[in-house]
Design a protein that fits this description.
heterodimer; A: 265 residues; mainly alpha; 10 helices; 0% strand; B: 299 residues; alpha/beta; Rossmann fold; Alpha-Beta Plaits; 2 domains; six-stranded mixed β-sheet; four-stranded antiparallel β-sheet; 11 helices; 13 strands; 38% helix
Chain lengths: 265, 299
């Protein structure tokens, strides 16, 4: 390790008060948060794994599906599921790692308006979710072309509504992950909570018949299912909205309040 | 530049920081001393808006920390060198901070160079850093925004003697250029060499504060002679108030110059003449430290 022989600090402006530097914009904070998603080995691997799984599923489809079924939609829909399961983990880590790695000490010392950091993190995972849909579309398109080349149907049967639904599906997933992370501020707890919630719902709904009614409104795995169909009815959107309110909006607000008040140490 | 007024922090029935008030002026290094668990870090976190105080307030550069639009450009903060993402490289850690503060990216290389982290170290992940390297990285982070105020919690922790010497020079230089430094330590000697002002905290309360020279002044003079008996008579004759210590020397309540003159007049050969080390502040500090250690031991 080399050391500078003579101590030299940066020239500090003397007595004259200088113009206060502007606070960082939300756009700048968002670009920093996006960078943080990929600047660690763990983050890079997680994102690479998600991409590889999407590609792997498309390849498997090429072999297992009947030729007539090898259409754009049948390539797209299955690739959305693993992304929807794993991408929220990226969102959870983005929020909880500040506390588990204790970088919150630096982050919130540099940006004391914590809500701006949280907003930037949410914007970053939303952008990641939209980007993931683009990747899914690209993979599905590549799968369709490959199907055509290998004698499958390779038809472009998709509707635009499906793309919109895919975006909604991924947005709900990442925001739910982020909301759980924000509320629990603990990586394992948030990941387990997020992954286990649909399972707990289906087990409880299967055991307790009285829960089957509420499950249609509250179980996100049920309310999001129609997104994979052709057309969402107004009723289905309504149920989705209710479940999003309960599992995304409420923990998001409660988590934001908790983050604003929490002592950083 | 740093104004702390009646800061108090209670966790349930425990009062960790109790009505602490002090000021840090421009151009000074203030040493914040106290045993482990005395409330130094909690006070510093409250100044930086990371811990909400139960009572009282703190301002930096005239404003509460949380109202500063871009605090990194005003205040360099190093509260815990270990609080960095272990998966990021040193350079990446600084780059993120530079982006947040809106300072030029070229400052990253300058800051790394300034704290003595070379290109190889900068490319390594922080998880592989030694504590000393993390302290250097933390210092680079604090200096990155070219601030006028530095708040450093135990910055010498983990540095080798050469590093501690280097850091002293850096902080002295920073203050001499008009900067304000508040640094904490549980080691009096480490702070004594660089601080102009001392602030001693024990059990959450400020127990002493003031200019270093004043606080350390009333130490008396330690004097030792070849002929201990002759020295005693000389001191008595000069009407100097002296107490014999266990090793044959005397602690005299007078300036070394006065004691030396008296010895010279009487023709007594001295073997030692220096300010006595067991000053009021050090005694106080040791009492505090001993108390805290005992408490920890029986906890």
């Amino acid at each position: 390790m080399t050391m500078t022989a003579e101590p030299t600090t940066e020239p500090t402006t003397e007595a004259a008060p200088r113009v206060a530097a502007a606070r960082p914009s939300i756009a700048r904070l968002t670009s920093i948060e996006l960078r943080k998603l990929t600047d660690t080995r763990a983050g890079r691997w997680l994102l690479a794994t998600i991409g590889l799984i999407a590609v792997a599923i498309a390849v498997v489809q090429l072999f297992v599906l009947d030729d007539a079924e090898q259409t754009f939609t049948s390539f797209l829909s299955p690739s959305l599921l693993p992304v929807g399961l794993l991408l929220p983990v990226v969102g959870i880590l983005s929020i909880t790692s500040e506390w588990t790695q204790r970088t919150a000490l630096t982050t919130y010392a540099l940006v004391p308006h914590r809500e701006r950091v949280v907003l930037a993190k949410l914007a970053a995972v939303v952008l990641a979710a939209v980007a993931s849909v683009l990747v899914s579309l690209a993979v599905a398109a590549a799968g369709t072309l490959a199907a055509k080349a290998t004698g499958g149907a390779g038809s472009w049967d998709g509707e635009w509504a499906l793309v919109l639904n895919a975006v909604v599906f991924q947005l709900v997933n990442v925001l739910m992950g982020a909301a759980f992370g924000l509320l629990l501020l603990n990586t394992p707890l948030a990941i387990v909570g997020y992954l286990l919630l649909p399972t707990v719902w289906s087990i409880l709904a299967a055991m307790i018949s009285a829960l089957q009614g509420p499950a249609n409104w509250l179980d996100t795995s049920v309310t999001m299912e129609p997104l994979f169909g052709n057309e969402m009815t107004a009723g289905q959107w309504g149920r989705l909205a209710v479940s999003v309110l309960v599992w995304v909006a409420v923990p998001l607000v409660a988590g934001l309040l908790r983050t604003l008040r929490r002592e950083v140490s | 530049m740093i104004m702390v007024e009646h800061l108090t922090k209670r966790y349930g029935p425990h009062t960790v920081v109790d009505n602490v008030s002090f000021h840090c002026e421009r151009g000074t290094v203030t040493g914040f001393l106290g045993p482990n668990g005395a409330g130094k870090s909690t006070t510093m976190r409250m100044i930086c808006g990371l811990t909400p105080p139960t009572d009282g307030s703190a301002t930096v550069a005239g404003r509460p920390y949380r109202q500063l639009p871009n605090p990194g450009r005003e205040i360099g903060v190093l509260l815990d060198a270990s609080a960095q993402h272990s998966g990021r490289t040193g350079r990446e850690t600084l780059t993120l901070a530079a982006m947040t503060m809106g300072v030029d990216r070229s400052r990253v290389a300058e800051a790394l160079d300034l704290v003595g982290l070379n290109a190889v170290a900068a490319r390594r992940r922080v998880g592989a850093y030694s504590l000393g390297m993390r302290q250097r990285l933390g210092l680079a982070l604090a200096l990155l925004g070219d601030p006028r105020v530095l708040i450093l919690d135990e910055p010498a922790n983990g540095l080798d003697p050469e590093g501690i010497y280097w850091m002293r020079g850096l902080l002295r230089d920073f203050a001499d250029r008009g900067g304000t430094v508040l640094l904490s330590s549980h080691l009096l000697r480490e702070v004594e060499a660089v601080a102009d002002r001392l602030l001693v905290i024990g059990g959450g309360r400020i127990v002493a504060q003031g200019a270093r020279d004043e606080l350390l002044a009333d130490t008396g003079t330690l004097v030792r002679a070849r002929d201990s008996h002759a020295l005693r008579l000389t001191l008595q004759r000069a009407a100097l108030d002296a107490t014999a210590d266990t090793t044959g020397g005397f602690v005299v309540h007078a300036e070394p110059g006065v004691v030396g003159q008296a010895a010279a007049d009487a023709g007594v050969v001295l073997t030692e003449l220096r300010p006595a080390a067991d000053g009021g502040l050090e005694q106080l500090f040791l009492t505090l430290t001993a108390g805290a250690t005992t408490k920890e031991a029986v906890k």
